[in-house]
Design a protein that fits this description.
By secondary structure, this protein is of the alpha/beta class. Strands 2-1-3-4-5-11 form a six-stranded parallel sheet, sandwiched between helices. Strands 7-6-8-9-10-12 form a six-stranded mixed sheet, with helices on both faces. Helix 9 links the parallel strand 9 and strand 10. Helix 2 packs parallel to helix 10 and helix 9 packs antiparallel against helix 11.
């Protein structure tokens, strides 16, 4: 059989390339791994839900940051706060789509560890936003509010607002097993100077951070004991639900209620006197720093590490001695949602 001439060989190679053979689709490293092929850097985002205004802001900020960097954001979410299986499926989906990095707000800080390990083994940068994993080194880095500090700020303010009055506290907790939920709860008690099981705690209930669930939970707790004078809430939707139940019992304005989030609606609620204070978080900063880290990783392989505190600020129109706070005018200028 005669040898092919150089011209005939070139035609054959071109035909193979047009047919999409692996000979013409190898990446710079000589493999078919994700992240090295042509096209925009793919960044995955997995939030707890896609309806909570906080996570909507996180997602929208990440999309804007990715677009500004010439990257493509793929946003997925659990169906509800605590949907661990939904988040695992989302991570697996993103791995299949060839993302360079995954940003995630874990619903359960331990339940997604296997999926995260799988992503890291594929060479994907994994960053937690808002919520730490357990153990913390299950991700490369975390950009989040120090939720222990946020809870403590809420607790210190509620305690100070009571003055010398002995506290009778109801706790509107989040989702059992969640790192954020546990840290805020523990921080609040520290701020109040209380320990678990203290007689000052007259009731507690999980709310999953949902307004309707919080209202129902508060109604049930008030039926058992309406002597409450202080309420901890995991977030602002829970605060709105708790306040609605208190108002129905004629207790509006008679109970010191604090919260955490710093959404624009929450700041407006504080200004309207529905609850005394909220602790503002900065999800836009979390999202932007997460996107920046993935883009940098795609360029030079650099990785962030450890916990990166994105800040927390007490917002109230009734400042108290010894507590650094901003008023709702500042809050409205810096809120999210």
């Amino acid at each position: 059989m005669a040898l092919k001439t150089p011209r005939r060989l070139a035609v054959v190679v071109l035909a193979l390339c047009l047919a999409g053979t692996t000979a013409c689709t190898k990446t710079k490293s000589g493999s078919g791994d994700s992240g090295d092929s042509a096209g925009p850097v793919k960044i995955g985002l997995v939030t707890k839900t896609d309806t909570n205004p906080y996570f909507v802001k996180l997602r929208d900020s990440a999309k804007a940051a990715a677009s500004a960097k010439g990257a493509a954001l793929i946003a997925l979410a659990g169906k509800f706060d605590g949907d661990n299986e939904g988040q695992v499926s989302a991570i697996e989906n993103l791995i299949q789509q060839g993302v360079k990095g995954i940003l995630i707000t874990p619903s359960n800080s331990t339940g997604i560890l296997g999926a995260l390990k799988q992503a890291k083994e594929k060479g994907i940068l994994v960053i937690a936003l808002d919520t730490e994993t357990d153990p913390k080194d299950a991700v490369d880095a975390t950009y989040a509010t120090n939720n222990l500090t946020a809870g403590e700020l809420e607790g210190k303010y509620v305690k100070a607002s009571l003055g010398q009055t002995v506290p009778k506290v109801l706790l509107m907790d989040g989702t059992p097993g969640g790192t954020v939920d546990e840290q805020r709860h523990r921080g609040f008690l520290q701020g109040m100077g209380l320990k678990e099981g203290d007689p000052a705690i007259i009731g507690a209930a999980p709310t999953n951070g949902d307004q309707n669930k919080a209202q129902s939970a508060m109604e049930n707790l008030l039926q058992r004991d309406a002597s409450v004078n202080a309420v901890y809430t995991i977030n602002e939707p829970a605060a709105r639900g708790a306040v609605a139940a208190l108002a129905a019992k004629g207790l509006a304005g008679k109970v010191a209620v604090g919260s955490i989030d710093g959404g624009c609606q929450g700041v407006a609620d504080v200004k309207a006197g529905k609850y005394l204070a909220t602790v503002m978080q900065f999800p836009k900063k979390m999202a932007e720093r997460g996107v920046d880290a993935v883009v940098a990783f795609s360029k030079d392989g650099s990785k962030p590490a450890g916990f990166q505190d994105t800040g927390a600020q007490l917002i109230t129109d009734k400042p108290l001695p010894g507590l650094d706070s901003k008023d709702t005018t500042w809050g409205a200028q810096n809120c999210w949602g």
